[in-house]
Request: fold
Amino acid sequence: MYLPPIILLFSLFFIHYGTFAQNADFSGTWKLNESKSNLGEGGFRGGSSSVTIHQEGNNLTTERAFVNRNGEEMKNTEKFTLDGKKCENTTRNQTRTTTVTWSEDGKMLTFSSVMVFERQGETMEIKSTEKWGLSDGGKSLTIDSTSQTPRGERKATLVYDKQ
Reply:
């Protein structure tokens, strides 16, 4: 079957454009659903009770709310680019370097982070990975989290409901 060159060009354009247009949009306000989450052994201290995500083009900003040891709600804002470049964010006087990459199908984000800090005169490092995905027609955000800490590996699956 013969297809005119212009139709082939348009077909390639739409296939190429469609690849980029399919990237998931994680924007919204999300609340932790503890009953659907697996907080790991002893609970997961890094999990936030809610997260607000602003995603626009190649930029993503998160504002996570969590309760500290004194029972006070704290908020932490971080900014990322979605192009695989290193991003630095300072949290509670500690700098975390993160690289964010898309899955091949554009439906998942992987956050690979390293945080170096001092404790009792000793330099320590925490490496972590978060894999984000949407389900239930975009109504649920699942974050699979793995951290390598001085106290060993910690894993959790956090499920958030869109508000």
The CA atoms of residues 147 and 154 lie 5 Å apart.
